[in-house]
Structures are given as structure tokens and as C-alpha cells.
């Protein structure tokens, strides 16, 4: 993205979780926009090789206060983008304290250090799971937040913490509520690489490429057009660009904080996704119908008017076909990579 906003580029951006799926795309977006980047990641689910070599890399935990403070004081950190966290909804149901620890308590620790070290801005990875199971077709930011799983609650508490901190200290924040993130860098530099990932598009793409035997469809009796769960899938590179816009929004008015949906406003069911992956890959995918998965809402679709009005962010890869094509291309490349080999620069046809 070329950013021609008025904010000055002073200092570096600390990206926690920058070796992970979304964080590694945000690192690319920041570097491509001219920002120096420092990544802090403990590599529990991320990969060192996924971090672009133009960024500095520190292996460590966001709860390691001594480490975080040394980064914040040594580098001139203009803002933090906080992606580090635990992300799997069903796991949060069986191990909620992991989520309150790594999402809520860890962010409290990071925020404490950010405030103490005078970092003026933070962009936070929130989630559509904060809405729970809404009774409206599209959720806007003031739709009541009633999360139905510990993952969503662990993030909603952080949003409250950020609001209280921004009222009390000289820091402003942008909480971006991501809908379902999918796809991969169109230039093939990074993508979703976690082994055993549970996200639907990743699972379908693995099945199409013969790396899984089948796809389980969790729930066929939802009140949706075909009975399966409906989600708003956002291309990860569009989401990464949204972070750069959020950063400039914070810098342009340090008094204002923002909570904004990141989605396209279009919903696809599990069967729609399966059909798209079959069509684009040319492979048939074996489907097995299963009961509903605990903690899953029927449908979650964004009203994205707020981010469209407050920033100049505009989606560039909003077609489900593009998301699937880029996910397939990444999965294919990932399978052929040798362990530790840096990510490629191959152009993927859009
Ligand atoms: N993937 C989605 O659909 C989605 C949707 C909504 C919100 N989010 C949020 O976006 C963020 C990134 O998600 P992702 O899909 O890229 O997941 P990911 O697991 O690929 O990335 C998380 C990264 O954080 C690192 N990490 C985890 N805990 C850490 C800690 N305590 N200290 C340092 N590093 C740590 C991991 O090693 C990994 O590199 C998360 O906060 C997640 O809750 C993701
Ligand atoms: O093998 C699978 C995987 C998923 N699903 C269904 O597909 C939909 C999407 O599921 P999934 O890809 O696991 O994402 P979500 O559970 O919707 O959660 C994602 O999207 C949320 C925002 O909407 C984020 O907060 C979470 O981090 C992220 O995991 C749901 O209806 C699931 O029941 C299946 O039927 N089979």
C-alpha cells in the first residue's frame, strides 16, 4: 500500500505476534508503507521464517516485562500493533484460562509497559467473536457485545481495558474487530502456515490438495440459507492494510480512539466455501456432516461503514474467489518448502 496521509513517519512500530499469520502480513504492509518494524514473538504458533528480513526480530514473550521495556526504551517505538494471542474458539471453550492468560492478562502487562514507557498509540487485534450470536443481519460497532465463548470474552475485556487506559493515560487505541480472516499475500511472501489450523478456508484448501481426507461440516440446522454457519471472510492482505490506516488515524488525532469492524459485509456459508474451493481447485472434497460445534454462532457479518468513513481503507481482494485462489497458492507453496526455507516472492495470479 502506498500511504499518502499526513502523519509523519517517526520511530518504529513494534509488532507483537508478527511471526504469525495476520501479523506477518501486517509486517509486510508496514514495511511496504515505509515503516521500520520490530517483531516480538515467542514462536508458539508463529514462524521465524515468516518475518520479512527487513524487520528486526526479537524472540520472547509479551509478558516478559524486562524484555518489552528494553525494546520500548532502546528503540523509538511510535506505536504497538498487538497481534500476539491465542486464537482458536473451540480451544477457548475447553481451556478458557489459557485465553484469559494469553489474551487478557498478557495484554494488560503489555499495556502497562506501553504506558510507562510513553508509547502513544496501540492497535489491537479484537474480534467479531465479541458480538456473540447477534440477532441482526449485519453487526455494527454499537450492536450489543454478548460473546458466547471465552475467546470472545477474553478480547472484550481487553477492549474495556483499552478504553479505561485511554481515558486515564496519554495513549490512544484502535481495536479492530476482525471477522473471519483468510487468504494469503498475493505475492506469495507469507500465508497461513500453522499445522493443524482449524480455520475453515485453510481446512478446505488442505483437503483440496490432498492433505486432509475430508472436511467436517459443523452444524446443518442453523437458521441460514443452507443450514450451515455463515461468516464474513476478509482477505488477510486487506486486513493488514486496514492496520496501516488505523495507525495513521491514531497519529492524526491522538485524542481519539476507535473500535472498528474489519469485514466486507458479505456472508458465505460453510457449503458456499466448500463449493468455491472445489470449483477453483478442480478437486472434489469429501464432506461429512457433524453436529454444531460448541461456541459457534449461526452467522456473523460486518457492517463496515465505520472504517470506510473514518479511513481511506478500501478492500482490494474482496471476492471469495481471490481469497480461495491465494490460500490455495500459499498452501501449494508451503507443501513444497523445505523446513526453515524463507518464504518465496513468487507472484500468484489473481
Ligand atoms: N485468524 C482470525 O480469523 C482472527 C480473527 C479475529 C481476531 N484474530 C486475532 O488476530 C491475532 C493474530 O491471529 P493469527 O490468526 O495471526 O494467529 P497466529 O497464531 O498465527 O499468530 C499469533 C502469533 O502470536 C505469537 N504469540 C502468541 N502468544 C504470544 C506471547 N504471549 N508472546 C509473544 N508472542 C506470542 C505466536 O507465536 C504467533 O506468531 C490474534 O490476537 C487473534 O485473536 C484472528
Ligand atoms: O472444519 C471446519 C471448520 C469450521 N467450520 C465452520 O466454519 C465456520 C467458520 O469457522 P472457523 O473458520 O473455525 O472460524 P470461527 O470459529 O468463526 O472463528 C474465526 O473467526 C472469528 C471472527 O469471526 C475470530 O475471532 C477467530 O479467531 C477465528 O478463529 C463456522 O461456522 C464453523 O462451524 C466447519 O464447518 N468445519
From TrEMBL:
Pathway: Carbohydrate metabolism; galactose metabolism. Its EC number is 5.1.3.2. InterPro entries: Epimerase_deHydtase, NAD(P)-bd_dom_sf, UDP_G4E. Residues 13-252 form the NAD-dependent epimerase/dehydratase domain. Keywords: Carbohydrate metabolism, Isomerase, NAD. Gene3D superfamilies: NAD(P)-binding Rossmann-like Domain, UDP-galactose 4-epimerase, domain 1. It catalyses: UDP-alpha-D-glucose = UDP-alpha-D-galactose. One of its GO terms (biological process) is galactose catabolic process via UDP-galactose, Leloir pathway. SUPFAM superfamilies: NAD(P)-binding Rossmann-fold domains. Its cofactor is NAD(+). Belongs to the NAD(P)-dependent epimerase/dehydratase family. PANTHER family: UDP-ARABINOSE 4-EPIMERASE 1 (PTHR43725:SF53), UDP-GLUCOSE 4-EPIMERASE (PTHR43725). This is UDP-glucose 4-epimerase. It comes from Novosphingobium aromaticivorans (strain ATCC 700278 / DSM 12444 / CCUG 56034 / CIP 105152 / NBRC 16084 / F199).
